[in-house]
Amino acid sequence: xxxxxxxxxxxxxxxxxxxxxxxxxxxxxxxxxxxxxxxxxxxxxxxxxxxxxxxxxxxxxxxxxxxxxxxxxxxxxxxxxxxxxxxxxxxxxxxxxxxxxxxxxxxxxxxxxxxxxxxxxxxxxxxxxxxxxxxxxxxxxxxxxxxxxxxxxxxxxxxxxxxxxxxxxxxxxxxxxxxxxxxxxxxxxxxxxxxxxxxxxxxxxxxxxxxxxxxxxxxxxxxxxxxxxxxxxxxxxxxxxxxxxxxxxxxxxxxxxxxxxxxxxxxxxxxxxxxxxxxxxxxxxxxxxxxxxxxxxxxxxxxxxxxxxxxxxxxxxxxxxxxxxxxxxxxxxxxxxxxxxxxxxxxxxxxxxxxxxxxxxxxxxxxxxxxxxxxxxxxxxxx
Length: 383
What we know:
The protein is mainly α and about 375 residues long. It has helices at about 10-50, 110-120, 125-130, 160-195, 205-215, 230-235, 250-260, 275-285, 295-300, 320-340, and strands at about 65, 70-75, 80, 225, 265, 270, 315, 345, 355. It has two domains: about 5-55 and about 95-195, Helix Hairpins (Orthogonal Bundle); about 200-383, EF-hand (Recoverin, domain 1). The chain is built from ten helices and nine strands. It is rod-shaped and about 120 Å long.
């Protein structure tokens, strides 16, 4: 965990890790495509090459005769197979240099492993040569038209087929090694260019900064904060998403104009994480996006963001809510001062009104009681 904390400080390492995380959905799709192609070719190879370089005993037809204390058995005809050891006795196997007990197409599982090995390019040509007809190389030493397993009482051919071997493995290599795997590499490189580029309007670091500032006001991760927190959030964000570092520094009136320009929707006194991030990003990134099928689809997906469906429909933006809260705060301050001026209250050196004996414990239904209390993140009334 201590080592992983370096990610926050090592910018290049963080870029690489973010590239991998962003690429996972696309890589999953490519992985499914790879499995589908492996499945298709495995079934095809089992159908065509299952009996190539067949060694008696591989298909389970073994005699009851035991062979020594090692548990070995003698298959009918020829070949001694050890049940407890991972090898065949010398001279008792028809396997070739590449089609052997580690790589063959006698069953589906082994066919998948063999093809997965060929995807990496490891000796795929050697496997292809062993799967060719008896005329190729020394294949005639390991196969013959009657050396295959006995199926329905008939001897079968244990030799391969040159044409099918060439077509199968050359197309497999072209599809897997030069197309599908290149797609995976292309996805990673494209995402790396997007994440690590310094020429973008908005970088991943700036989006991460927005998330960290938002969490200060939404520690439970509800995606929702009160609208009056928006200005405080912007005052802690560096440009371009926030207003920290803007030269010259914004005045209060300029900040309010900036809030109006963002036009963040207000849902009954609350703003949503996704809508706020979208607003500040669009404000810096450029022109409004035209309405089309793609943008409509994005808008539908945005409604599925956690928390946004539970909010009220926005009737105005966050600036309106902020100004109303500011006006209410000013009015409460004015009402309190007016009350104590009418009651001839005295003020201490700090300007705080001193209650008389009649007002030490005001009645709850008295207008103005508690009105001077300013809520968190609201503007305090002027003295």
